[in-house]
Design a protein that fits this description.
By secondary structure, the protein is of the alpha/beta class. It has 15 helices and 15 strands. α11 crosses α13. The longest helix has 24 residues. The protein starts with a helix and ends in a 14-residue tail after the last helix. 57% of the residues are buried.
Length: 469
């Protein structure tokens, strides 16, 4: 394995800044690694190496700012739900199989302005629907830890690329858990930030508060580094927030202790496989090293399933409803089901879900007056066979639809609070398991600090990148 690929993103940026390695060298190292490994994992099927080399040369010729959020020519991957100008943009759908983006999302513009170089687009399920990464356009993505297993989704391509050492950082998005689930399944770190923390668009649904963009990396510090380069207000995103007056990376590197921390294995209602529950319970106890107490507790998540399913269906209908009339034959059954579920909703049901979400948020704010953090497993199950479309049953609980098994993550989506998934253990079969850490709204610094403290002195970060096997 190329020594450059083994560098963390923070280490690679330090070398770029010092002139010890050039952006072109890193682009070439990423290209070599992608070509060596992607036949096995299919994480980055859309490549833009010529575009990346041109961007690298531009950075090498220009004056680079001495800013804390500047990445100095670090190669990254962008999920194929996000537009990159001049690059194929399929969204995992046969409808857009040959589409090439004529503009870049403002998120990509922000990252490139901060010195990131896009080398490839990461695979995703059609329109990000589901937590198993496959589609009819670009095929199935596998898990570098075991290529017979899924990396999860919908940011599965981004996660697998990181775990295989194809790039140093990757962007993903998260509605029901799409940053956190693949991070858990591939032994990397994924942060779902608060809505508005990262500007995106232009979007047909600019006021949506459930889906967010976020960073993924091999370490907590790498994720903090990328978050620094992603945050900021933009006029095209009406809910975007100004960047904070501090660095997330500096916060992550200088963490302090915490007060009371709550742990819940099942959020009061989720079936959890015993091995996952045991690994995460032991991981939660490590927080006693830097918190005053770790207690079994959780805010009341009654109605959480209905809140999420209703609001998600409404969003699917709004975003994709017109496609149903024109392209029904090209849509996968899960997408059709979700759109139709949204179209059948009444205003009464949507209004109830919005009110119930408001009541839930008030319970969350009261909870965080007592506790600094909430800990819980990221996923009910460990990585499973990539030929299984979705999990249909856990511990005798049968799921009614293809997203119900994501409840460990989507119940927290309802709160709009920042949540990070960090590797916390391995199953007997040697597969990664992730732990979620949640903090009050807009406190990404707290989840990064807690994750950094947890990660310290553990070996999980050194287990990636991996040669796919």
């Amino acid at each position: 394995m190329d020594d450059l690929i083994k560098l963390t993103a923070v280490e690679a940026v330090d070398k770029l800044k010092a002139g010890e390695v050039s952006p072109l060298e890193l682009v070439d190292a990423a290209k070599r690694r992608i070509l060596e490994t992607d036949d096995a994992v299919n994480a980055l099927p859309i490549r833009c190496f010529d575009r990346a080399r041109a961007q690298a040369k531009k950075i090498m010729k220009g004056d680079v700012p001495d800013g804390g959020s500047y990445l100095y020519g670090l190669p990254i991957a962008i999920k194929d739900l996000t537009a990159v100008k001049g690059v194929r943009f399929t969204q995992g759908s046969p409808i857009f199989a040959d589409h090439v983006a004529d503009h870049s999302d403002i998120l990509v513009e922000q990252l490139e302005a901060c010195g990131a170089i896009v080398v490839a687009k990461a695979n995703t399920p059609e329109f990000g629907a589901g937590a198993q990464t496959f589609n009819e356009v670009l095929g199935t993505t596998t898990n570098p830890w075991d290529i017979g297993k899924t990396p999860g989704g919908s940011s599965g391509g981004s996660a697998a690329a990181l775990a295989a050492g194809q790039v140093w950082l990757a962007q993903g998005s998260d509605l029901g858990g799409s940053l956190r689930i693949p991070a858990s399944f591939t032994g990397v770190v994924g942060l779902r930030p608060s809505p508005g923390r990262i500007a995106r668009g232009p979007s047909a649904l600019p006021f949506g508060l459930s889906a967010v963009e976020g960073p993924m990396g091999r370490t907590v510090a790498d994720v903090a580094l990328m978050l620094d380069a992603m945050v900021g207000e933009h006029s095209a995103d009406p809910i975007s927030m100004a960047a904070p007056n501090y660095s997330y990376l500096e916060a992550a590197l200088k963490p302090s202790g915490f007060g009371r921390v709550a742990y819940s294995s099942d959020l009061g209602q989720c079936p959890i496989e015993a091995e996952v529950a045991d690994i995460c319970a032991k991981a939660a106890q490590r927080f006693t090293d830097f918190a005053t107490a770790v207690e079994e507790d959780c805010f009341d998540l009654r109605d959480g399933d209905d809140i999420f399913q209703i609001l998600r269906a409404a969003q699917f209908a709004a975003a994709h409803g017109p496609k149903l009339q024109t392209y029904r034959e090209q849509l996968k059954p899960d997408v059709i089901w979700n759109i139709e579920a949204g179209l059948k909703l009444t205003a009464e049901k949507i209004g109830w879900a919005q009110r119930a979400q408001g009541v839930l948020y008030q319970r969350v704010t009261e909870f965080f007056k007592i506790y600094d953090l909430l800990l819980t497993p990221t996923v009910m199950v460990p990585p499973f066979d990539h030929e299984i479309r979705s999990i249909s049953e856990v511990n005798g609980v049968v799921f009614e639809n293809y997203v119900a098994w994501l409840a460990q993550t989507y119940l927290l989506t309802n709160t709009s609070c920042p949540v990070i998934s960090v590797p916390c253990g391995l199953t007997a079969a040697g597969l990664p398991v992730g732990l979620q850490i949640m903090a009050p709204a807009h406190r990404e610094d707290l989840v990064l600090q807690a994750a950094a403290l947890f990660e310290k002195n553990l070996e999980f970060a050194s287990m990636v990148p991996r040669d796919p096997c």
